[in-house]
Amino acid sequence: MPGSTRHQNPAATLRPALGLRQNLAQFMLLVAVNALVGGTLGQERTVLPLVADQVFGLGQYTAALTYIVAFGVAKAATNYFAGTLSDRYGRKPVLVAGWLIALPVPFLLIFGDSWGLIVAANVVLGISQGLTWSTTVMMKMDLVGPERRGLAMGLNEAAGYLGVAGTALATGYIASSFGLRPWPFLLGAAFIAIGLGLSVLTVRETHHHAKAEAAGHVSVHAGAGAGLRTREVFTLTSFRDRSLSSISQAGLVNNLNDGLAWGLFPVLFAAAGLGIERIGILAAAYPAVWGAGQMVTGPLSDRIGRKPLIAGGMLVQAGALFLVAVGQDFGTWLAALVLLGAGTAMVYPTLLAAIGDVAHPLWRARSVGIYRLWRDGGFAVGALLSGVLADAYGIPAAVLVVAVITAASGVLVAVRMRRTDHHRRH
């Protein structure tokens, strides 16, 4: 009727629309931004382990991996605060702050004349990554709503890790032609400048989308609605809830084995006589399969549920690590890293989507931040554990131990985690 629109609730007409199709332009912009976030990290994956060995002469693996420990601790701690900050001040200011913090990183990596400055660069990089990557995750969750969360996380993480892979491959070729420093790290400087510009000029705030979803949300926990304090969200995500705590430990173990791969695999391959170009191919293969595979596994988890992919992916990773430990040639290691990427693709976006299934929209950002605290703490744990083991027993032994830990994590998910797919129907 002609007069019916005059009596509509104005708040209802202004409520942001949720869904991928409704927010496609902004969603794809955030995909591009996260590819740049990944590229900023990828500038280190091939080159920096070789800088530690060949430029600074760090013979002990434990000492050489201090930059990964520094990165992991800084990123994990920042993840914890990123959710709270984005709830308080909005998503966009936190994203922009993350890019601003990253500005000095390439120059510290290029001009740092002591290992302490390289470690300091990775503290700064960890803080930046904690703010930028966490916020792009939250913003995509805000935009798409509950039904396509797996697809959203698959695209987000695919963009980020394809950025890591592409940059790892490119820096390998650049380093083989022009040396380990400065040219490979200039890519990172370009990515930071572009990411900052896009975030300031074109990214829009999404916090109001989360509030719109919260208005129709039914909590999946008795007494765990919108009013939880951060301490309560921490204990729920870390320990009390069977699903959330299973997700948190799986995330920690996933990045434990990634810290091992980042810090020790290039050294292992170099010791076997592989050149920088081939090491770059291997360093890129793992995140490339990981990145591309998430475009399949993310939406697949929307259809078949999160738990089978998480438990199965951890077991696939364990098998791949065993193959790295026993391998002795380029072909075997390439097959192992493809398999490792496939297993990680099964796990990575699915863990984030499962957090989104269970957490209330008004404390979801904090729960994601706490999960990412545990997950990225795995970088530090992995670097320390694998470094100590490699110094004592050699790199293959360290890889075997991490393979066993990864398999145990998959079994724990299979036994303890509840299925979360029914939560999306609320």
From TrEMBL:
Chief place of localization: membrane
UniProt KW keywords: Cell membrane, Membrane, Transmembrane, Transmembrane helix, Transport
Ranges of residues in domain Major facilitator superfamily (MFS) profile: 18-421
Membrane protein topology class: Multi-pass membrane protein
GO molecular function: transmembrane transporter activity
Transmembrane feature ranges: 24-41, 61-82, 94-111, 117-137, 158-176, 182-203, 309-327, 333-352, 395-415
UniProt subcellular location: Cell membrane
GO cellular component: plasma membrane
CDD domains: MFS_MdtG_SLC18_like
Pfam families: MFS_1
Family annotation (InterPro entries): MFS, MFS_dom, MFS_trans_sf, MFS_Transporters, Sugar_transporter_CS
Alphabetized PROSITE patterns for the sequence: MFS, SUGAR_TRANSPORT_1
Top-rank lineage group of the source organism: Bacteria
PANTHER family: INTEGRAL MEMBRANE TRANSPORT PROTEIN, RESISTANCE PROTEIN MDTM, PUTATIVE-RELATED-RELATED
Protein name listed in UniProt: MFS family permease
